[in-house]
Design a protein that fits this description.
With about 200 residues, the chain is of the alpha+beta class. It has 3 helices and 11 strands, in the order E-E-E-H-E-E-E-H-E-E-E-E-H-E. The strands form 3 sheets. A 6-stranded antiparallel beta sheet has the order 7-8-9-10-4-11, with helices on both faces. It is elongated.
Amino acid sequence: WDLCALPKGRKALCTKWVFKLKRDQDGSIARFKARLTARGDRQVRGLDFAFVFAPVVRRSSIRVLLAISAWFGLDLDQMDVVIAFLNGELEEIIFMKQPEGFEVPGKEHLVCRLKKAIYGLKQASRAWYQNLDKFLLEIGFVRCAADPCMYVRRLGGSLVIVAVYVDGLIIASNSQKEKDRLKGLLSAKYAMKDLGPLSW
């Protein structure tokens, strides 16, 4: 964000800290998370946002992907995008109050004009999906007609399929080289966590 004076007639969204426990597949605590969010429940339709819908991969598509992977012997890996929503570009002009405890001394009267989506905004998920969709299409993937969160790329005899569920990606491939290449491209563009072989 950039700090600026709040224009006349506009309201700044409040902020809220969200604390969460992240658990592993066996239920043990993996890490403690703290996230600054905007109070999106106070956004005004038509002023602060227009569209909010963002697709996620269907469960039936994941089942089909697992079946195809088993049939053709594809390797399945999992990746997670760190702070995914902060990669989304905002189309609207949104103002937010400075986070409590992090006000800039001498500029407490100013507000934050958001440049990127932030968790809590109604359109944050959509902005992130549009960013990732654009990137995958740029690097040669084709979006499936039946599911907008399934992407396929064929190069010679290699096949790579990506399923996207918000900030989680399942990557299926018959080529270790192409899978590593994709992971490298994703890690260069976004902060990523490689979770290794798909386990849960």
